[in-house]
Amino acid sequence: MSIGTLTRRTAGPAPVAPAGERPPAGRLVALTGTLLAVLALLAAVHLTQGTAAVGVGDLVSWLLGRDGGTGTAVVVESRVPRLVAGLTVGAALGAAGCVLQSVSRNPVASPDVLAVNGGAHLALVTGAVTGLSLPFFGEVALAFAGGLLAAVVVLLLTGNAYGTVRLVLGGTAVSLALSSVTTSLLLLYPNEGTGLYAWAAGSLSQNGLGTMRMLAPVVLACVAVLLLYGRRLDVMALGDDEARALGVPVRRTQLIVVLLAVLLSTAAVAATGPVYFVGLAAPAIVRLLVPHVPGLHRHRALVPLSALTGIGVVLGADVLLRAVIGAQSAVSVPTGVVTSLLGGLLMIGLALRLRATPIGGAATALEVRGTGTRHRALLTGAVALVLVGVLLAAALVGDRTFLLGDLVMWARGEAGPLVTTVLDTRMPRLAAALLAGAALAVAGTTIQAVTRNPLADPSVVGVAGGASVGAVLVVTYVPMVGFWALTGAAGAGAAVAALVIFTLSARGGFASDRLVLVGVGVSYVTSALVTVLIVATDPFNATKALTWLSGSTYGRTYEHLVPLAVSCLVVIPLAWAAHRRLDLISLDDDTPRLLGLSVPRTRLLLLACGVVLTATAVAAIGMIGFVGLVAPHAARTLMGRRHRWVLPVAALLGGTLVVAADLLGRTVIAPAQLPAGLLTAVIGTPYFLWLLRRTRGV
Fold first, then answer.
1. C-alpha distances in angstroms, 676 versus 390, 463, 660, 683?
2. What is the spatial distance between Cα 370 and Cα 386, in angstroms, rounded to a whole number?
3. How many CB atoms neighbour CB 364 within 10 A?
4. What is the pLDDT of residues 614-642, one digit of tens each?
5. Are 396 and 346 part of one and the same domain?
6. Of 416, 88, 63, whose CA–CA distance to 270 is shortest?
7. Within this chain, do residues 346 and 455 fall inside the same structural domain, yes or no?
8. Which end of the chain has fewer CB atoms within 10 angstroms, the N or the C?
9. What integer is the mean pLDDT of 312-327?
10. pLDDT at 362 over 50
C-alpha cells in the first residue's frame, strides 16, 4: 500500500464517535500520552543501567537536586549524555524518515535506504583519516554534503516512480559502494581509523553534553519547519497534480523537505555515527496506527509522533542490548547493531505484506537477445583468451614485476630465489580469485534462473551474508580450525540463510519482489551479527576481520583452496549438466510440468548448487559482491538465454572480474593493498544501477 493511498483512505471527515467511545481527538491525545509514558519509563530504566550500581534512589536524588554521592555523579557525568543522545538522535531520525516516506510516497524510504547515512559516514571517515580537524558544525556540513549527494544519486537512478523494490535495491547498491570505499580508507589508515569501526555501527557514547547542546537546537529547528510544511505534505499525499491545482509548489516543497530530512539524519551521524533503520522503523510503526487513530495521518501529528517513536526505538534498543548481554559487554557493542537487527526484521515483515507477481509468470527480464548467438563458440574462445591475458598480467605485475621468461622458468622450477618466493605467494592468490569468481558467477546464474529475477545475487539476497556469519563465528571462537571446518560453517550459515529466504519468499507464490526484499532484510541482519562478533571480541583489532569480510586473497595457499576447488570441480559440471532444466525452469512453471519435470525438486537442487558454491567461495576468500550479478547478466547479453553457453561464459567472466580486481588491489596503491571484494563492489555498483534502470518496465 502506498503512502498516498493510506492518506486518502483516512483524509475524509472525522467520524462521529458513538456513545461511550473516545472522540477522534481523544484517541490521538491518548496515543501521545501513552507514548510519552513509555518513553519516561524507558528513560528511567536507561539511567539505572550501566557498569556502576545506580538505583532508583540515586535517580530520585538526582532529579530532586540532592547530593547523592558517587551514584549521582555517575548518572550526571556518563548516563545523562548517553540518554540525551538517544533522545536527540531518535527524534531526528524518526522525523527524517517520516517526511522522506511522504515525499517519495514509499513506505520503505529512510535515511538508510536512500544511502544518506552511508554518504555521511564516508564523508566523515574521509575527514578523519586525512587529519581534517573540524568543529561539530563543520562535521555536520561535511556529512550533509556526503549524505545529500548519495540521496540524489539514489533518487535519480531508481526512476521517478520510486518503486519499493527498486528503491531498496538502488539504495542498497549505492550503500555497498560507499561502504566499500569507507572500508578501504579504514584499512589503508588503520592508526587514524582506530575505533571508527564500532562508531560506524552507531554508538550513543558521549563525552559530556557539549555535542548534544549543539545538535538539539538543530533538530528542534528542523522539526519545527517540517511542522510548518505539514499542511502542504497533507495535500501532496493526494498526488502532485491535485496539489498543484490547490496551489502547492510541489517541487520546491519536496526540495526543502528533503534538504531538512538530510540535515537531520546527517547531523545525527556526525554526533553518534549511523544508527541504522530508526528512520524506517519509527514512521512504519506510526503509520500502522493511522487507520485506527483519526487525525494521525496529518503530518502535524505524524511527524512529532514519528520523532517520539524514533526515541523509543533508540532507547529500547539500548535498554534491550544491556539487558541481554550485560552492561559490561554492552560497552563495546554499538546500539546501532540492535536497530539494524530490528530494521532487517522489519524489512522482512514489509516484504511479506507486499503484493507482488508470483514467480510462476514468465520472466521477461531474462528474455535477452545475445549479441554473439551466431558465433557462440568463437565468442567463448575470445572470452577465454581475455581471461588468460588477465591471468598472465596478474602473474607478472605486482610489487615485483617480472617478464614472461621468468614465469616460464618458475614453472620449470629453474627460477631464482626472488622470483620463486614472489610467485609462490602470488600464484595461489590468482587461483583463489579465479575459482571464487567462477563459483560466484555460476551461483548467481542458477539463482537468477530459478527465481527468474535478473537482479538476484548471492550477496544481495542474503546467502553470502549467512555464509559470512558462519565463517566469522569459527574464525572468532576457533581461530586455529582447518579450512574444511571453516567451509562447513560457512555452508551451514548459507544453508540457514537460504532456507529462511526461500521459505518466506515461497509464501503466496514465490513472488520475485518478495524474494529480493526478504534477501535484503536477511543481509542486514547478518551484517549486524557480524558486527557484533567483531566489536564484542576485539574492537581495536578489527583489521583482519574487515579484510576477510571485504574479500581478500591475501595469504591464501593451495591448502586453503582445496574445499573451493572440489566444489568447483563437482558442482559446476553438475549445474552445466542441468542446463536444459535451467532453460525450462527459467521460462515458467507450466512448461516444465508439461514436460514431466518436477519443479519443486529441480528448484531445490539447483538452489543447493548455488548455496554450496557461494559458501565455499566465501569461506575461501571472504565476501565478494556483485560478481554473481554482473557475470551472469553479461553472459546472457553475449550468448542469449541458453544455459549451455551462459554457464561457462559466466564462469569465465566471473574469474576474469575477480582476478582483475585482485590485480588492481595489489598494484594501484602499492605497496599497500586493497581487498578484491571492495573493488568488485566499486566496479559492480554502476553496472547494477544501469541494470536497475534498464529493467524499470519489467
1. 14, 19, 8, 11
2. 19
3. 12
4. 888 888 887 787 888 888 888 888 888 78
5. no
6. 88
7. no
8. N
9. 83
10. no
Q: Match 512504519 to its residue by C-alpha cell.
A: 284
Please give the grid coordinates belonging to residue 392.
598472465
Q: Is residue 278 part of a domain?
A: yes
Contact in structure between 308 and 285 (CB atoms under 8 Å) = no
Task: Answer left, alpha or beta for residue 632, where phi above 0 means left and psi between -120 and 50 means alpha.
Answer: alpha
Asked if 395 and 313 sit in the same domain, the reply is no
Any residues with CB less than 8 A from the CB of 572 and at least 6 apart, and which?
438, 439, 442, 613, 647, 651
Helices (H), 507-598: 512-537, 543-549, 562-577, 579-585, 590-594
Distance between CA 446 and CA 443 in Å, rounded?
5
Query: Kind and range of the H or E element at 152?
Result: helix 136-157
**How many Å separate Cα 529 from the centre of its chain?**
13
Of 307-321, 365-379, 416-430, least confident by mean pLDDT is 365-379
* The total number of residues written for the chain in this structure: 698
Residue 374 lies in a domain: no
CATH number of the domain within which 255 lies? 1.10.3470.10
Structure confidence at residue 10 (pLDDT): 34
Residue 536 has φ and ψ, to the nearest 5°, of -80, -25
Chain centre to alpha carbon of residue 263: 22
**Are 206 and 117 in the same domain?**
yes
Banded pLDDT at 437 (limits 50, 70, 90): very high
Please check whether residues 396 and 332 belong to one and the same domain. Answer: no
Q: Which residues contact 506 (CB under 8 A, 6 or more apart)?
A: none
Closest CA to 534 of 448, 444, 473: 473
Show which of 297, 331, 353 is a domain's final residue.
353
Rounded Cα–Cα distance for residues 673 and 554 (Å): 9
Same domain (yes/no): 576, 512: yes
State the Cα–Cα distance between residues 573 and 579, nearest whole angstrom.
Answer: 10
Confidence of residue 537 (pLDDT cuts 50, 70, 90): low
Question: Number of folded domains in the chain?
Answer: 2
Q: What DSSP string describes 608-672?
A: HHHHHHHHHHHHHH----SHHHHHHHHHHHHH-S-HHHHHHHHHHHHHHHHHHHHHHHHHTTTTS
For 636-667, how does the pLDDT look when each residue is reduced to its tens digit (9 = 90+)?
888 887 888 899 999 999 999 999 988 888 88
Whether residue 651 is contained in a domain is answered as yes
How many CA within 13 A on the CB side of residue 519?
29
Q: Is the residue at 232 inside a domain?
A: yes
- Are the C-beta atoms of residues 641 and 371 closer than 8 Å to each other? no
SS3 assignment for 469-522: HHHHHHHHHCCCCCHHHHHHHHHHHHHHHHHHHHHHHHCCCCCHHHHHHHHHHH
Q: Are residues 345 and 437 in the same domain?
A: no
Together in a domain, 520 and 582: yes
**375 contacts 638 by C-beta, under 8 angstroms:** no
* Domain residue limits at 579: 391-400+429-694
Whether residue 305 is predicted with pLDDT greater than 90 in this model: the reply is: yes
Residue 194: how many other CB atoms lie within 10 Å? 14
- Report which of residues 241 and 56 the model is more confident about: 241
Cell of 328: 559490561
